[in-house]
């Protein structure tokens, strides 16, 4: 069943059958409008048959046939009313979808306001930060008019990609359908934002629609700028070049690790800020752990090329990481930034203080340069570096009092990790509701971030810290000393964190991360 979106919360398609309803439910549709008269064809399911079947899935239905002397214009007013009354997103169908699109266009032409849906809270971005915030808001205020703008049909657990690249998780463990993780009560606008107009309390969508809001929450993430490394994009996934920063490439990392018997493996880290500053090392350590297990590590020359000047930004965790580097015999290269890749010839070029250096490789794991989301960067919401500019404690925009931002796409000075988004989401939720009620922010984010550094398959250095690199363990140090490799921390990462993400964070369950009152 192929659907196409023609407006926020509205898609059209051809004739559906009762057997399609399960798939349509999985896609997130909550209401269906039938624009095809009963009896046009002998094998056509009647509206009553579909309505009976839809009731089992909790899908509302409306019969507004077009045809047999009834035109799209005739049904325009009732169709507009259906869009106002039915739960979104709505699917309209006829034989091919064309009549449904015609009646929708006629409805929009008659009621221009339908072109600009309005929500009390509009969240841009359906990743971990956006969905967690929506869930926390709706947990506190059920029935609130709230929508999430997100074009992707799949939602990813990005922290799991390192484990896929290390042969611990399967790729399928890190993905769910977006419709399956959206909080109940949130409308899903399956489109991309093309522009922000905060002075008019509006966002522009790529599909041409405009949506207005009382409160805007921006959770669009940052951008992986693969193109800034010459020759990289055309060789990713081939010639021994991989990256755990992409869902489709993480399995290739594990394939390369398993195939490698000898040679040189290069691992890179670009200039900060990046998603999870420990991830470049995690890929390297898990690879070395496997080669060590197979008795191959002595045949493989491993190099870490870091554009920065230190192994890790919080000094308390460096000794344990240096022990790991020495254990695996890794060559450290600081202030060495990857600038070009020649995949067919298997060479990588790095810019260093002494000039450019080219190294041959048999395996190259690349972490791409990262920057602010382009749509945010081109808007009044951005700071000079292209990130949404917010107060570091309240997460409220510094110039627009009804705008908040969180996650990887804002300019707070914390580590860009899922753990940070999990801590930020409840803060943004309560502060956004306070702003909606005309009050000042009531909660503060302390800059918490967590980076479980997988030093081998079975042990983790659990780095946890707040603004300024202050060590801030969640659990008692007698249980987990985050500065030392720990098997318990491994089980936390491998066994506990995925269900906490899927069934806790995305459901608005704020375990160990309640919003802290603003002092």
From TrEMBL:
SUPFAM superfamilies: (Phosphotyrosine protein) phosphatases II (SSF52799), FAD/NAD(P)-binding domain (SSF51905). The keyword Flavoprotein applies. Pfam families: BLH_phosphatase, Pyr_redox_2. Its cofactor is FAD. Residues 4-103 form the Beta-lactamase hydrolase-like protein phosphatase-like domain. GO terms for biological process: sulfide oxidation, using sulfide:quinone oxidoreductase. InterPro entries: BLH_phosphatase-like, FAD/NAD-bd_sf, FAD/NAD-binding_dom, Prot-tyrosine_phosphatase-like, Sulphide_quinone_reductase. It comes from the Bacteria. Keywords: FAD, Flavoprotein, Oxidoreductase, Quinone, Transit peptide. This is Uncharacterized protein.
């Amino acid at each position: 069943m192929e659907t196409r979106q023609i407006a926020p919360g509205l898609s059209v398609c051809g004739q559906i059958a009762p057997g399609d309803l399960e798939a349509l439910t999985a896609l997130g549709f909550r209401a269906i409008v039938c624009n095809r008269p009963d009896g046009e064809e002998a094998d056509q399911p009647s509206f009553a048959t579909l309505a009976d079947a839809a009731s089992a899935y909790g899908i509302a239905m409306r019969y507004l046939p077009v045809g047999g002397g009834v035109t799209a214009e005739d049904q325009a007013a009732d169709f507009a009313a259906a869009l106002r009354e039915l739960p979104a997103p709505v699917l309209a169908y006829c034989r091919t979808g064309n009549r449904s699109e015609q009646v929708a266009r006629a409805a929009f032409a008659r009621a221009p306001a339908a072109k600009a849906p309005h929500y009390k809270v509009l969240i841009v971005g359906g990743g971990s930060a956006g969905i967690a915030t929506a869930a926390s808001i709706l947990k506190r205020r059920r029935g609130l008019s709230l929508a999430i703008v997100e074009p992707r049909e799949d939602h990813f657990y990005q922290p799991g990609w390192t484990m896929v690249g290390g042969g611990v998780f399967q790729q399928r463990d890190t993905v769910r359908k977006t419709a399956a993780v959206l909080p109940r009560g949130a409308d899903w606008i399956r489109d991309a934002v093309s522009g922000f107009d905060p002075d008019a309390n509006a966002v522009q969508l790529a599909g041409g629609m405009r949506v207005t809001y009382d409160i805007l929450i921006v959770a669009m993430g940052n951008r992986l700028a693969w193109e800034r490394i010459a020759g990289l994009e055309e060789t990713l996934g081939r010639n021994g070049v991989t990256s755990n920063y992409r869902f489709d490439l993480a399995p290739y990392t594990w394939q390369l690790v398993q195939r490698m018997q000898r040679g040189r493996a290069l691992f890179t880290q670009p200039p900060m800020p990046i998603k999870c500053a420990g991830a470049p090392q995690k890929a390297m350590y898990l690879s070395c752990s496997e080669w060590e297990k197979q008795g191959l590590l002595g045949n493989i020359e491993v190099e870490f090329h870091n554009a920065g000047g230190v192994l890790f930004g919080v000094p308390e965790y460096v000794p344990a990481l240096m022990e790991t580097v020495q254990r695996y015999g890794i060559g450290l290269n600081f202030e060495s930034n990857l600038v070009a890749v020649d995949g067919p010839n298997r060479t990588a070029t790095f810019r260093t203080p002494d000039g450019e250096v080219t190294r041959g490789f048999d395996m190259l794991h690349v972490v791409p340069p990262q920057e602010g989301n382009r749509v945010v960067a081109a808007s009044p919401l951005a700071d000079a570096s292209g990130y949404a500019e917010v107060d570091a404690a309240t997460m409220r925009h510094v110039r627009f009092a009804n705008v908040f931002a969180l996650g990887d796409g804002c300019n707070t000075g914390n580590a860009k990790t899922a753990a940070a988004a999990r801590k930020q989401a409840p803060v943004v939720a309560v502060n956004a509701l306070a702003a909606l009620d005309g009050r000042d922010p009531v909660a503060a984010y302390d800059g918490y971030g967590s980076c479980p550094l997988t030093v081998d398959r079975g042990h983790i250095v659990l780095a946890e810290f707040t603004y300024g690199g202050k060590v801030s363990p969640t659990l008692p140090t007698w249980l987990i000393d985050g500065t030392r490799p720990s098997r318990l921390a491994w089980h936390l990462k491998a066994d506990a964190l995925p269900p906490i993400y899927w069934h806790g964070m995305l459901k608005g369950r704020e375990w160990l991360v309640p919003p802290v009152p603003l002092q």
